[in-house]
């Protein structure tokens, strides 16, 4: 994706992200797996950057395109295509364009059914938190330790992941977690 994003004017994602060249997965103190990401071009093989920052950079790149119009909060129904473009309905309005990108959520089935597109996969409940803290240097640059286990965070055998990020994420202060529905969990 980094090459695609760079080609459409969002190269800052690769520039701002923290480069990973290796990853390790542990269960408690036992390493379960490790792998290296090979550098094969001018872009890093993988970067870690927050989703919110990625979306911000992509939104800025889209806003700089005079031929792209973004409409938030529109329910797209009744897509129809022909040799000259696409017509979609958004409520009572019909819109016509050469191309349309409708960003439907994972649970949106009506639009997929109208287009004959499937979204295979599974859903599962996940309770997650984010904790910002300064970690000492571990290993070589780009060799990011990942510690993970199964179960609920904070319980014996629970899941904990350590992922380095290039800059602070979210609105909390270091040492706090932002939990489900935006509540703070210390």
Automatic annotation (TrEMBL):
SUPFAM superfamilies: FAD/NAD(P)-binding domain (SSF51905). Residues 40-123 form the FAD-binding domain. GO terms for molecular function: FAD binding. The lineage of its organism: Bacteria, Bacillati, Actinomycetota, Actinomycetes, Streptosporangiales. This is FAD-binding domain-containing protein. It comes from Nonomuraea cavernae. Coiled coil: none annotated. Residues 135-186 are annotated as: Disordered.
């Amino acid at each position: 994706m980094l090459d695609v994003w760079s080609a459409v004017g969002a190269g800052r994602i690769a520039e701002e992200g923290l480069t990973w060249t290796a990853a390790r997965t542990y269960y408690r103190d036992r390493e379960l797996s490790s792998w290296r990401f090979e550098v094969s071009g001018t872009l890093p093989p993988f970067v870690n950057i927050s989703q919110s920052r990625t979306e911000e950079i992509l939104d800025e790149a889209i806003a700089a395109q005079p031929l792209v119009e973004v409409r938030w909060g529109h329910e797209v129904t009744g897509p129809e295509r022909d040799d000259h473009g696409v017509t979609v309905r958004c409520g009572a309005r019909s819109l016509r364009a050469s191309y349309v990108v409708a960003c439907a959520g994972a649970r949106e089935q009506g639009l997929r059914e109208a287009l004959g597109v499937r979204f295979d996969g599974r859903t599962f409940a996940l309770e997650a938190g984010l904790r910002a803290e300064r970690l000492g240097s571990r290993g070589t640059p780009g060799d990011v330790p990942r510690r993970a286990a199964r179960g609920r965070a904070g319980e014996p055998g629970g899941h904990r992941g350590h992922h380095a990020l290039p800059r602070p994420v979210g609105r909390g202060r270091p040492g706090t977690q932002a939990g489900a529905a935006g509540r703070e969990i210390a």
